[in-house]
Amino acid sequence: MKPLAGLRIADFTVHAAGPFCTHMLSQLGAECIKIESSLRPDIFRKPHPVYGRMGPASFDQVASNKLSVRINLKDPRGVDLAKRLVSISEMAAESFRPGVMARLGLGYDVLSQVKPSLVMLSVSSSGQTGPDSHFAGYAPLFGAWGALGFLTGYADGPPVEMRHVMDHSVGMNAAVAALAAFYRMRATGRGCHVDVSAREVASSLAGEALLLAAAGGAPARMGNRDLQMAPHGVYATSQADRWLTIAVREDAEWTALLGVMGRRELGDDPRFRDAASRLKHAADLDVEVESWTGTQIAEPAVARLQAAGVPASVSATTADLTRDVHLRDRGAVVDVEDTDGKTRAALSVPIRFSQSEAGLERGTPRLGEDENYVFGELLGLSRAKRAELAEAQVIH
Amino acid sequence: MNGCVEGPLNGLTIVELSSGAGAAYAGRLLSTLGALTVLMEPPEGSALRRRPPFLPRPAGEGEDVSALFAYLSAGKSSVVCDPQSPAGRASFHRLLETADAFICDVPLSQRAAMGVDEASVRARNPALTYVSVLPFGASGPNAGWRGEEITLIHASGEGFLLPNGLSAEMFPDRPPIKIHGHFAEMQGGVVAALGALAALLSRSAAQGEAVDVSIQDAALAVGAFAIQRLGDGSLEHRVTRSFKYGGVLECADGYVQLLTLEERQWTGLVELMGRPDWATAPDLQDPLERGRRGAEINARIRAWSKGETTADVVARAQKLGVPMAKYSSPADVLAGAHEQARGLFQRVDIPGATPAPVLVAPFHLDGASLRLRGGPPALGEHQAILHITNRRETAGLAVGAR
User: Fold this and answer.
1) Fewer CB within 10 Å, N- or C-terminus of chain A?
2) Is the model's pLDDT at B115 over the cut of 90?
3) Stretches in chain A below the pLDDT threshold 70
4) Which of A160, A180, A346 has the CB atom closest to B162's CB atom?
């Protein structure tokens, strides 16, 4: 049994941030019905030359585990059909630019009449209100607006683009806010419109820097440096483009690091005698650490450092992650069957429960794959009625 | 006690024992959404109180006040409770009797000795939701591994892919970097809040859930696209995952981000640049050709952007439907008209420092921003909570129970 079994979501979200949210909720047990049309299929069903994908994706992580139906929302009968679907759902989710759902006749004011207890989730770049609410944006723009991009980068370099992790962070926050609203709905019957602003999610991930700036401080880009820890960085190994990351907070970790490095004498060096001195001489210390890491193979070095109690990791490539024994053991990385019959690595929901189940049960649905169940069983539309709606390009 | 707020989780009580940003952010999110989050601190205070950055203060006056603790703890209540002392243990159990969930980031090896392991807690509070937040989770071969933000963002894969774009072009031989602050740990916090809510929605009076969150798993989850790309046959790398053109652009007074994925956005960009001859040339009307000649196009765009100012060019771009944003500094965000209009910040009292605006939450509910109960608590400010002894009834909130 999954914890959210019994929760149904009418999912109008597209692209990455919104679909990631409902993808998470679906893995937690929600029945998520993805609404598209052949006139407006989601981005993964189309070629994406920017990423070198010249056809539709065979597997799309954020669309997987969902049911798929076609509804043409440009047709008033399609809008009526969407409302019927919302009326049998506890939650509706969308990620169009603010105002689009209202123009379609599916705004919160309308849907909350259809279903007063509805939790409606809207995910957008800048939120549903405010002077910039109409702004167009993608993940790197969220990071730029929200100050997280400004704060990330080498101290002597430019700001850095946030990529897909930014989209998906937005989706994860949206899942929390939507579930909180759903929790209240369960207790009180009260519906809710949840308005998630992607740029504000970027800002929330730099909340301490924003507070510092508000109090007169000047947070800035600082590469891999830390304000308290040294050594603290990403260090070269004996392998090309293979990096080892180490962070030392406590004296015991420092002593353990020197033991693994075989450089106990550095503990007597006045430049490194305590944490404050080590921080002051961080650049000198990095040279000493790298003179050791530069002779090491990354993985065994990490194993020895962790065995000695030193926080360390390989700077993992994506290929490393898909074969990682720990991630496989936890079920964080799983194999799924692609539409071509081959297996490929995918990610499960990053939560393990002691009693409930969670995770992927099916791959990416074909467009309209679940219409027999959704339109037939759930909405009770006869075959004849569905054929008529298909003929009229309402189910299309 | 703190004042009341109208959040959807009003009525829930969360007890938090944290020393890292992940568990603390989980408690903070739930608190901002209306739960009463009680922070259990050792007599010397949470380790997060001693974590930088520290708020500016006159030299020699008072103690350091952590901006990180202030942000992560705003709206929480603080009790001093050391579960290793006999009196502290009794208080701890009383506290849990009033709680719906317990969030804990104590390393596995120390939990039993402190009496905060799941079995000990469960023995007295069978229905409690136990939320564990650890660098590598509570199970699996690396469960005992130590982690700090920088090691975790690299253990989850995103670190290796940073920086990309302009920065990677400028410094191709430098080591990869981390995202500012506590990005990976906070993903762990968001996921822990999600796991806690899912568990609370399905709880029964008989047996509470244990929720096991790994910061590595959480940060990896938001990096899902790289795994998907690998399955499609492409191994991402920070140097090659740059956009063909656009990206970070230097202007006369700062930087902007430009990303044109759709044809109409490219057309808008050409308009924005004043329809220069090179951009209106017939061969560049083909998006595939533009992709092939990305470096050449980007050199032109970068030369153009240097003569622009950020506020002006972004305003014009957005009017033309061109996705462009300024790389806002923290001061820009604090002063932003949009952020002000949405009530993103709330001025709160900060013990040991002057009152300051703190970011509330990145979402609105019911058409308005949420409200923090207050600023960060003084150590032990809400000690009276320990004398409340009413055992809570577990509500029948299971999702399927209609």
Assistant:
1) N
2) yes
3) 49-52
4) A160
DSSP codes, B26-62: HHHHHHHTT-EEEEEE-TT--GGGGPSPBPP--TTSS
What ranges do the domains of chain B cover?
A: 13-224+335-387, 260-322
Which of A212, A306, A360 would you mutate first to test chain B, the one with the most B CBs within 10 A?
A212
Pull the structure tokens for residue A341: 């019959």
Q: What domains are there in chain A, each with its CATH number? A: 8-205+366-391 (3.40.50.10540), 232-320 (3.30.1540.10)
- Residue reference for tokens 């999912």: A11
Of B157, B214, B321, the CB nearest to A136: B321
Fold of the B13-224+335-387 domain: Rossmann fold (3.40.50)
- Residues A247 and A315 sit within 8 Å (Cβ to Cβ): no
The predicted-structure confidence for A122-151, as pLDDT tens digits, reads as follows 999 999 999 999 988 899 999 999 999 999
Beta strands in chain A (DSSP E): 8-11, 31-36, 67-70, 91-94, 119-124, 192-197, 232-236, 243-247, 312-314, 333-337, 343-347, 352-353
Pairing of strands B129-134, B210-214: parallel
The strands making up B36-41's β-sheet, listed across from edge to edge, are A352-353, B210-214, B129-134, B101-104, B13-17, B36-41, B77-80
Please report the ipTM that was assigned to this predicted complex.
0.98
Contact between chains at B150 and A247 (C-beta distance less than 8 A) = yes
Q: State the smallest CA–CA distance between residue B281 and chain A in angstroms.
A: 21
Residues from chain A contacting residue B8 (CB–CB below 8 Å): 180-181, 183-184, 192
Residue A341, pLDDT score: 83
**Nearest C-alpha in B relative to A336:** B231
Q: Using the CB atoms, write b or e for A163-199: b if 16+ within 10 Å.
A: bbbbbbbbbbbbbbbbbbbbbbbbbeeebbbbbbbbb
Per-residue confidence (pLDDT) for residue A49, from 0 to 100: 66
pLDDT in the model for residue A50: 62
Distance from CA of B288 to the nearest CA of A (A): 7
Could you tell me which residue, B396 or B61, shows the higher pLDDT? B61
Predicted confidence at residue B318, as pLDDT, reads 93
Residues 6+ apart with CB under 8 A from A13: A19, A21, A22, A93, A94, A95, A123
Q: Give the mean model confidence (pLDDT) for residues B203-230.
A: 93
Write out the two tokens for B328: 């806002």
Backbone angles phi, psi at B81, to 5 degrees: -155, 115
CB contact under 8 A, B177 and A152: yes
